[in-house]
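[#protein-structures] MJ: dropping DUF1801 domain-containing protein here for a structure pass
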Amino acid sequence: MAVKKDTRTPQAKSVELLVAMTGKASPAKAAEGDKPVFAYIESLPEPQKSIAKHVDALAAKAIPDLKRAVKWGMAYYGVPDGWCFSSGAFVGHLKLMFIRGNELQPEPPVTPFRMGKATRGVELTAMDEFDDDQVLSWMAQAAKKPYVTAAMKKKK
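AK: finished. structure tokens for DUF1801 domain-containing protein:
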């Protein structure tokens, strides 16, 4: 079987990625549960898909009672008491943002635009940028300090 060589220029490949990722969060519909998050991750282009799969696997490892949801076009991860962090794909990178990130040690380096004053995280463009031990530590710390919405407080 012959393998067709990809003859597109780097610029053409880059344009395809820009078309796939507009700079805004995904139009994925809000829904709670594993299935919507897995579908969201599968809908992503590479390299964001591989990075998001890795983030999801680390979340499952770090948090035994992990709950998942798609909110605002991103994957959200939490514990029964609240939400801890989000993972969203954008043009050329994936944001891993911790809702109460300014309380984590060491504090994640990125303060995102329009995601809350306490939110901190990292922007990842490739798998080799991962420090699994650090990300697992942040996830475990975040699980102990979940963000509780007003609606969640009413349920208690």
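MJ: nice. The beta strands are 31-32, 67-71, 74-79, 82-90, 93-98, 120-124.
AK: one more thing. The CA atoms of residues 53 and 147 lie 23 Å apart.
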